[in-house]
Specification:
Chain B: InterPro entries: Bact_solute-bd_prot1 (IPR050490), SBP (IPR006059). The complex is a heterodimer of chains A (284) and B (427). Chain A is mostly helical. Chain A contains 13 helices and 2 strands, in the order H-E-E-H-H-H-H-H-H-H-H-H-H-H-H. Chain A folds into 2 domains: 42 residues; 230 residues, Orthogonal Bundle (MetI-like fold), CATH 1.10.3720.10. The two termini of chain A are 42 Å apart. The model of chain A has no long low-confidence stretch (mean pLDDT 91). In chain B, strands 1, 2, 3, 6, 7, 8, 9, 10 and 11 form a 9-stranded mixed beta sheet that branches. Chain B has a two-stranded antiparallel ribbon with strand order 4-5. In chain B, strand 4 and strand 5 form a beta hairpin. Classes of the chains: A mainly alpha (284), B alpha/beta (427).
Chain lengths: 284, 427
């Protein structure tokens, strides 16, 4: 009896060791670096971080990216997944094509879009050869920050919508056909079925997809660095700069903690407001 | 049991005999330990180990243990070794600023006591820099700098009064005002801004600010950071920027933009434009940078070789230094890494072609009459903070259009604080 009660703990042990070693320790270290000075508690580093010229810009830009990118990706992924959930010729090929960008790193994706849109890149050459424009359209540079912003959004949507798509598609395929058939028997049309059966049952998938995407959006870094340099400061890039260029691990930790904190809050909000509804339970 | 013990003992004896044979066999070759903060990227490391040091090992029957190391680690290790008296390092390869620090701490040997290095003349400026704190602290090893590259087509649009010759030799007429006029002409003629700078996050733009335009206008890198001359300089930058390709803030290196024809005039580190010149040696020339009211400010990056006090193999170390500063070795280093020789004889050994174009430009810049040589200050961990102040000033004044005086008042204080904290005089 005693030995059996130990087994679950033993089985949990590797995970606990992993969590403590790779997440707990660095987290404590980050707090230590952020809130102490010469071994004593101090808010000096926090002041230094908040008074940094780029701090508020970085915070605002990061949230803005997440706010623009994530909803578009979710909407697009749901539409694509609904479309791909039917059976038609070439469906597998379509799914493969949609998933390909998933295999490309953000830096590589950034480079692809940079070379496409640079003044003498493919898009500009095409426009000029077709006679649509005489001079190249600039997408990059401080003067064109708004354009840079939209190029980054575009590149992120191109690159990372597939992860949302995969999750939603998997969720869709889990929905039992019986519900839909039953609804059809009672005369529910496509939109009714979508609204009252498919979307509610998709909530758990939407929730995980949103959490994953938002976390990644908060860490947005490589693609911004390639496409906009520091014209558009973001949290992760500023944290990196503090660590590597300015050799200030304390301030860098604060950036990391802020990213972690916001991610945590957003994830908690998703969990709270997107509580999974199961038809069995909600049917009263 | 006793039998087993006997067998074990016999085995141990045999093993130790073999092992001692191996040890003494390998021990005949002395190993020179060479720590370097330079040539650390993987491909350069491979070049040093496989190509550069092999002939030396064969010639002198010496082993060289080449250890690439970051500056802070080097200092920590050397400090420890010097304090305990157990020195294991024979040769140190580092930048001038680092050498200055180590010499000031009294960790370096006075190389005046070593025999003369024959058949080579060190470039006078470099030789002068290597004497400091009362000793000959290091032997100049490699140098690098930042220059301007011009697409030959741009010469068609030279402003009035400025000739190709002026630009190529860096005459008194080749000024920042002339550059502005030239950039204007180019934009009017081609419809595109044709001047480019590596102002992206990984670009070396901050070096242009603190090492080129600041000294050219104020005579100093940091001392007159907030001064009427600096305001004049920033106003010039504001005037120039419309003729600079806007993508500059995203570019980290100017080689690609030059090759793609996105700009016709660019400034960058010699190593970062090498590729453009190698690819199209007929299209580009390397020229000195323009001059400002106070002279022609430019950075010289100088790396040297030193021997720490108490080095275990100082004679072998000297042989390595002798080998590394031979003209033919220096040409080999230039070919592979883009670092320029520190001995004059090396230029005679350069093959015709792209490297010669680069070397000529560098030489022309170094020998201009109004040269104002700038060394990157050695600020250790504060180096990043120092350069980021220039970048912030640029962003706020030129890109965001803030009032220069207000920005310089604010950042000037931070600049002073860096130097005060380190107890270093502002350069």
């Amino acid at each position: 009896m005693e030995r059996r009660s130990l087994i679950p703990y033993l089985l949990l042990l590797p995970a606990i060791i992993y969590l403590l070693g790779f997440i707990g320790y660095p987290l404590i270290q980050a707090f230590y670096l952020a809130f102490t000075k010469d071994g004593a508690l101090s808010l000096d580093t926090v002041r230094r971080a908040l008074s940094d010229y780029y701090f508020w810009d970085a915070l605002r830009n990061t949230l803005l990216f997440a706010a623009v990118i994530v909803p578009i990706q979710l909407g697009l992924a749901v539409v694509l997944a609904l479309f791909m959930n039917r059976t038609f010729k070439g469906r597998d090929l379509g799914i493969y094509a949609l998933i390909i960008p998933l295999t490309i790193s953000d830096v590589a994706a950034g480079l692809i879009w940079f070379s496409l849109l640079s003044p003498y890149g493919f898009v500009n050459k095409l426009l000029m050869n077709l006679g649509i424009t005489n001079t190249p359209i600039y997408f990059f540079g401080y003067q064109f920050r708004t354009r840079e912003f939209f190029v980054i959004v575009l590149a992120e949507i191109w690159r990372a919508t597939s992860i949302v798509f995969v999750i939603i598609l998997a969720g869709l395929q889990m929905i039992s056909r019986e519900y839909l058939e039953a609804a059809e028997v009672f005369g529910a049309g496509y939109w009714t079925r979508l609204r009252h059966i498919v979307l509610p049952m998709l909530k758990p998938s939407i929730q995980s997809a949103l959490i994953i995407r938002t976390l990644f959006a908060m860490q947005i870094f490589g693609i911004v660095l390639i496409l906009a340099g520091r014209d558009i400061p973001v949290l992760a890039a500023e944290g990196y700069r503090q660590m590597v260029d300015l050799k200030d691990p304390g301030v860098a930790s604060i950036y990391a903690l802020i990213i972690a904190g916001i991610s945590l809050i957003l994830a908690a909000l998703y969990v709270k407001f997107l509580r999974a509804e199961y038809l069995e339970v909600s049917r009263q | 049991m006793r039998q087993l013990f006997g067998v074990l003992l016999a085995a141990l004896v045999v093993a130790s005999v073999i092992a001692s044979g191996c040890i003494s066999g390998g021990g005949e070759k002395t190993t020179v330990t060479f720590l370097s903060t330079q040539l650390n990227p993987p491909e350069e490391r491979a070049f040093v180990k496989d190509e550069l040091l092999k002939p030396f090992s064969e010639e002198y029957n010496l082993e060289v243990n080449f250890v690439p190391i970051p500056y802070t680690d080097l200092i920590t290790r050397l400090e420890g070794e010097e304090q305990t008296g157990k020195v294991t390092i024979d040769v140190i390869g580092d930048l001038h600023g680092g050498m200055d620090y180590m010499a000031a701490k009294g960790w370096l040997m006075d190389l005046n006591d070593m025999p003369q290095l024959k058949d080579r003349t060190f470039i006078t400026t470099f030789d002068r820099y290597s004497h400091m704190h009362g000793i000959k602290a290091y032997v100049p090893w490699m140098s690098a700098t930042y220059v301007m590259v011009v697409n030959k087509d741009a010469f068609k649009y030279l402003p009035e009064g400025l000739t190709e010759e002026d630009v190529m030799t860096g005459s008194g007429k080749w000024t920042y005002d002339a550059l502005l006029q030239w950039a204007k002409n180019l934009k009017e003629a081609t419809g595109q801004p044709q001047l480019g700078f590596p102002a992206g996050p990984k670009g070396l733009w901050h070096r242009f600010l603190h090492g080129y335009i600041y000294p050219s206008y104020t005579g100093y890198q940091a001392k007159k950071f907030n001064s009427p001359e600096a305001i004049e300089m920033w106003n010039y930058m504001k005037e120039l920027w419309p003729y600079v390709n806007p993508s500059s803030t995203v570019w980290d290196s100017m080689s690609d933009p030059l090759l793609k024809g996105e700009v016709m005039i660019a400034w960058d580190h010699t190593a970062r434009i090498k590729n453009a010149i190698e690819t199209k040696p007929d299209q580009f020339v390397v020229v000195p940078v323009p001059r400002g009211p106070k002279g022609r400010g430019f950075i010289v990056v100088l790396a040297g070789l030193a021997i720490p006090k108490g080095a275990p193999h100082k004679d072998e170390a000297w042989k390595l230094i002798d080998y590394l500063t031979r003209p033919e070795t220096q040409v080999k280093v230039l070919e592979k890494t883009g670092f320029f020789p520190t001995v004059e004889e090396a230029s005679g050994k350069l093959p015709e072609g792209p490297l010669k174009i680069l070397a000529e430009g560098v030489r022309a810049q170094a020998s201009t009459q109004d040269a104002l040589v700038v060394m990157i200050p050695n600020l250790g961990e504060k180096g990043g903070e120092f350069t980021s102040l220039y970048r912030e000033a640029f962003e706020r004044i030129v890109l965001k259009g803030e009032d220069p005086q207000k920005v310089l008042d604010e950042l000037g204080e931070q600049m002073d604080a860096i130097f005060q904290e380190l107890g270093v005089e502002e350069p």
